[in-house]
Amino acid sequence: MFDTKYFSGAKKFWYNGKLYKWDSVNIHVMSHALHYGSSVFEGIRAYETDRGPAIFRLQDHVERFFLSAGTINMKIPYSKDEIIEAIKLVIKENKLRAAYIRPNLFFGYGNLGLIPKVCPVELVVGCWSWGAYLGDESLETGVHALLLNRRRIHPSQMDMRAKIGGMYAQSNIAGSYARSLGYEEAIFLNLEGRIAEGPGENILVVKKKRIKTNNENESILPGLTRTTLLELARDSGYDTEIGPITIEELLGADEAFFTGTAAEVTPICHITDGSIKEKLTTDWKKHAIGSGKPGPITCQLSRKYAEVVRGKDPLYEKWLTLVYSTPAEAEKNLGIKEAEHLTKY
Known about the structure:
The chain has 9 helices and 16 strands.
């Protein structure tokens, strides 16, 4: 029996074309991905709207899913439409109004040499209720991050656009290290000594009302939440910039925030600079970002993002995929009260 303490609301998952109870065991212990990290995944969210759950930027996530699979020479045995339908089915079967969704493609049981010559490509889709990755309170109060001296994977080594399971071992190590010292999150530098990203988040900085982030050449995954926030910022009248971010720019910013599907928009309020390896931890300097509290532009964009993902702004309904065809279907499955205004956002 698998405890669902950290997977609230999870009842069933989809695996290779069939639905299974959450505590089912299907994967052999000698599956290739378990030993080598030969998997690709997406983190996707569905939010509650007046028409039932709507999945945010689903098509874009699935496009990246296929790009990631191609990066490790993985032939996907399903079409994009089939994966989209599987994702919607899993949300329906778990009767969730909002969900975090995890599709994962991996090389399964075949051979256990480094090259998966005869390992089948398998697909699992699960979903559950999950709050903000860094804690729901972090969205309001912000976080204290540790600037690491460790360097992020370089784009000359790996296609940074891909979400490959094995690459996240580095994120695990860095995030665990920061937390062991009492920080909420870590920040990587790149090989050039500039700001890269968090273990699972992009970084945006605000200076004199100009919003800046970096690109994949700076050792980042160019996240979908990041591109969403850039578009929302421009539409809100702010100037935006994509370019390298120095340590000095980050520490001297008026505001800074993490973005990611799991983290959403999380203000960075303090940073301790541990980037100089020779210094003892007692010599690391703590920096307040701006006032040391979530800044007004960060809060404005966070509120806007929350409205958009919940279908409150018709301008951005292009990013929403409804799980149910009609409000009546959503009402029947979830018990949502239907009203006249539910036919459109």
